[in-house]
């Protein structure tokens, strides 16, 4: 079998595995292998094929890291939608308890020791699966 066929087989395997992971890194490496296959098909030598694959892999990885950094804050902005919402106390003792919010029970804790549970409690922050509450 010729070199370009091997490169394209590697590219297909990487893209197929990427479909199960969802990280996009293997997609970049699959594209790099496919480009090296094109270089082999054009008759370039092994060194040129490896340089094409390596260059595209490096540039693609850097571009993907930049994209992930620029979209990293979307998770915290989704949690920010909860801040300021009221909750219904189900059980509460010593600044900790469970509250009902959006139809489910959540673990909660007071933002400080000065929380008055006779008044409505509002979500002040979200820390993991815990709601931080205050008046």
Care to give the gist of this entry?
The protein is α+β, with helices and mostly antiparallel strands and about 140 residues long. The chain has helices at about 5-20, 25-40, 45-70, 75-80, and strands at about 85-95, 95-100, 105-110, 120-125, 130-135.
Which features would summarize this protein structure in a list?
single chain, OB fold (Dihydrolipoamide Acetyltransferase, E2P), five-stranded mixed barrel, alpha+beta, 135 residues
Q: Report the count of strand segments.
A: 5
Q: Could you tell me the radius of gyration in angstroms?
A: 26 Å
Percent of sequence in beta strands: 15-25%
Q: Report helical residue fraction.
A: 40-55%
The biggest beta sheet reads:
5 strands, mixed, barrel
Written description of the protein model:
This protein is an alpha+beta fold. It has two domains: 3-70, no CATH class; 79-134, Beta Barrel (OB fold (Dihydrolipoamide Acetyltransferase, E2P)). The chain is 50% helix and 24% strand. It is built from four helices and five strands, in the order ααααβββββ. It has helices at residues 3-21, 25-41, 46-70, 74-80; strands at residues 86-93, 96-101, 104-110, 121-127, 130-134. Strands 1-2-3-5-4 form a five-stranded mixed β-barrel. Helix 1 runs antiparallel to helix 2 and helix 2 (25-41) runs antiparallel to helix 3. The longest helix is centred in the middle third of the chain and has 25 residues, at 46-70. The protein is rod-shaped and about 80 Å long. The termini are far apart. The mean pLDDT is 89.
């Amino acid at each position: 079998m010729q070199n370009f066929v091997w490169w394209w087989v590697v590219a297909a395997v990487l893209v197929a595995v990427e479909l199960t992971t969802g990280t996009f890194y293997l997609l970049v490496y699959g594209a790099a292998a496919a480009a090296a296959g094109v270089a082999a098909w054009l008759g370039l030598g092994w060194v040129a094929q490896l340089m094409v694959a390596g260059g595209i892999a490096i540039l693609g990885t850097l571009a993907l890291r930049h994209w992930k950094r620029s979209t990293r804050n979307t998770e915290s902005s989704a949690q920010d939608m909860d801040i300021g919402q009221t909750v219904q106390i189900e059980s509460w003792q010593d600044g900790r308890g469970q509250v009902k919010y959006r139809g489910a029970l959540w673990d909660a804790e007071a933002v400080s020791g000065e929380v008055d549970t006779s008044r409505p409690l509002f979500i002040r922050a979200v820390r993991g699966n815990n709601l931080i509450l205050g008046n």
